[in-house]
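Issue: copy button drops trailing tokens. Both records pasted manually instead:
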Amino acid sequence: MLFIVIVSLLSLIAPIRVSAQTVPDPNSEVAAKVSTVFAAMPEMIAVEKCESNMRQFTKEGAVLHGGTGGAYVGIFQISEALHAERALKMGHDIMTIDGNIGYALWLRTTQGVAPWKGCVPATATLVAGVVASAVVSGDTLTKVLKIGVRDTQVMMLQKKLNASGFAIASSGPGSMGNETDYFGAMTRDAVKKFQCAKGIVCEGTESTTGFGRIGPRTREMLNVIVLQ
């Protein structure tokens, strides 16, 4: 009887084994999302790896902070002090994966690779803060376009605007499938809508702010749109 009691007590105080649990990787979606958003800007894939090694969070799940005093945040190591408030006003929370990527896209479009020049691949050519690809595809805009211009790139511009929801016209010349090589008032209006929606510029004129004119910043954003 005494033996049975002792065995029972030992079983109660025996070490409790806890089954191992797999902790989900908080960064599992980062690589795929960055590759999708920056498909036409491969240098940003290299920037992502250089800045954070494709991480928005630490392995414990906390937001990744780097740089002196942890002043830089997430995948693209965006300065919290300089950009967090502005990013939120634009609808991008840089503390999240989507927000960090979304604001990085805006920075890349408006400022080129200047915010990450230390991580830009040596094979890229840095011109006026913008990476110029050595290979220009057939649907890449390369010219300054404005009202009154007649050029084959205007037709490409109209196709890109129509394809991205900024229709030149609902029917007739300029409409989807009926794009022309002339940059007229309807094309300018569609360009303005595109520029405003993308946070490039939303006021002024073609000569003062570039509103309604295809310059480097607008062209970079439009070249993300790949025509099928």
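Record 2 (pasted manually too):
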Amino acid sequence: MPFRSLINKLVTISTITLFLVIFTVVISFSKDIVSDIKNPKIDTGTFGIGLILGGPTGISFELGRLSHTLKAGIGWTLLSSVKILDVNVDYTYVMPGLITKVPELGPYIGLGVKLLFLNDEYKKDKEWDTGSSIAIGARIPVGIKYIIKKVPIDIFLEAVPTLIIIPKVELGIDGAFGARYYF
């Protein structure tokens, strides 16, 4: 049991380190997010709320709109046989104008955190023999959004490689389509 206790401590330290790195990245770019919020090129608001379909299916939020954004989602994993609550937060760097023929398209890439609230059925389905009811991991959202500047709406499509770290290391991928209205 001492070995298992050591492993649990190392996993906890790794998780705390991951959260601190992501928090540091978000804080270091927060001035860029604030400058996007005050950007006069945006004809509409910079706080968006909308629906997301896929992994997860639920509600999507975004702060910022053009180049640096902080986005979050909360919903249910409807793509697996067992439904669980999925919460995620990402910092994304949007590159509007990268596709010069369609400047309204904004490809983006980011870094984020994923929390899954597990139930016994899900743990049994995954063969996770753990007492933990929370899974924690990292996400790398890669996507594209269509930015409608005159109307406060954007539409997005993304693929998100994920790495669950706790309670068990597991690679995965989420995919989603959605739209947000900006205030």
